[in-house]
Amino acid sequence: MIVVLFLSFVAAMVAGMLLIRWAHDHATRYGLNMPQRFHVGHVPRLGGGSVLVGTLVGWVWIAAGFNNANVTWSWAGMLACAGAVLPATLGGIGEDVTQRLSVRNRLWLTLLSSALACWWLGLSVPRLGLPWVDEAMLAFPWLGVAVAILAICGLPHAFNIIDGYNGLAGVVALLVCLAVAHVALQVGDRQLAAMVLCLAGATGGFLVWNYPKGMLFAGDGGAYLWGVVIAIAVIFLVQRHAQVSPWFPMLLLIYPVWETIFSSYRKFARGVSPGVADALHFHQLIYRRIVRSVFHDDESRRVLMRNNRTSPYLWGFTLLTVAPAVVFWNNTPVLMAFCVLFVVSYVAAYLTIVRFKVPGWLRR
């Protein structure tokens, strides 16, 4: 599997280099007045294309049988997975290029990807770890399909919300992929492990250009690719292996999922549509109210360094969920407790930052 991981890494890195060289003109189309814009200058937002290239190269390598890791993946299965991923990813890349694809249209494309994934790959969430809910899902199998569609449709937008600073969403996706691959290997599912390792390698190749210098951004295309592939992978993991708790992926992905839920609540409370972008997400508050002690005469260097110093705060926050998820992947009560703990910690941290009560040691 090391070979396919390295191959995906190199393919994405080379594709990213070409995009930086040839797609710079497109970056000028991204408006300077965007509320979620926290950088100076024009940077291509087509990094999702490089991640897609790296992932597909790895998948084709596996399907062609060019590996010695006892991993088998039929061409039909690989093409079905790739075909399900493409509508959402290409829609995101289309928005990155044109800036004209509405939120509603992108939502429809992610819904199409989720429907195709459930149809072609037979995806369904068999249980949720709650006895009365599991009984209902056993009696009405369509409920499991509906939950799978909701997960695959929603997670791309969750990754898009946390994609605000150099290396933030990319490293979160990388950590999640490695965690899923680890658990897949624990239960003997080498095919699933190889599938997500291709995405992990491609993400690493993209991060070469994204962090720390921010020469290439993932854009909507990258966020949607991460969300769809990871959602498919974790549903496969729970569906195929009864010993894996359905709360393993929930805790693993609780940061982007809860960020989305909390942001929707916050906007509804203000009478604003959840589709309207703003600058009040958790990572944006950290940037504006914690990462402050960077002083440079050149504005672009100052903004870049503040940008880079924001992501590690969220990486640490993510590790607080990824680590227990990997350790207790088959223990539902413990995983549920950690999910509750994260939600409480997130809300407390958010309110602390909003009320300007951040401890001094966090601002150093």
**N- to C-terminal distance:** 41 Å
Mean pLDDT: 86
Tally of individual helices: 14
Helix content: over 70%
Mind summarizing the main beta sheet?
Answer: none
What is the total tally of β strands?
0
Stretches where pLDDT is under 50 for at least 5 consecutive residues are none
Integer count of domains? 1
- Label the structural class: mainly alpha
Shape: globular
Order of helices and strands: HHHHHHHHHHHHHH
Radius of gyration: 20 Å
Give the strand content: under 5%
Please tell me about this protein's structure.
- By secondary structure, the protein is mainly alpha-helical.
- The chain has helices at 2-22, 47-63, 75-98, 103-121, 131-139, 142-162, 168-186, 190-210, 219-240, 247-252, 254-269, 282-289, 299-327, 332-354.
- Helix 8 packs antiparallel against helix 9 (219-240).
List the helices and strands and how they pair.
Layout (H helix, E strand, L loop, with lengths): L1 H21 L24 H17 L11 H24 L4 H19 L9 H9 L2 H21 L5 H19 L3 H21 L8 H22 L6 H6 L1 H16 L12 H8 L9 H29 L4 H23 L10
Helix pairs in contact: 1-2, 1-8, 2-3, 2-8, 2-9, 3-4, 3-9, 4-6, 6-9, 6-11, 7-8, 7-9, 7-13, 8-9, 12-13, 13-14
Task: Characterize this entry briefly.
The protein has 364 residues and is mostly helical. Helix content is 70%, strand content 0%.
Characteristics:
single chain, 364 residues, mainly alpha
